[in-house]
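One chain given next:
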Amino acid sequence: AGSADDELRKLITEISTSGTRALEVISLSECRTISDNGIGRLQKCRLLRKISLLGCSNLKDQGVTSLAKQ
């Protein structure tokens, strides 16, 4: 069985590479293992306008800023 981190990584990869590029809103709140690299994959979701990252303590300002610029 994979870890929660592995499952989250798979989900982010699937979202960023599949037809879900039309995703507009996502909550990743309390996903404490998500990294700047992980949320960076969401840059392909061009219609994403709202993301909740409350409690994602592993994220740094640089990763969030990079995603916001897209």
Summary: The radius of gyration is 11 Å. The CA atoms of residues 27 and 52 lie 5 Å apart.
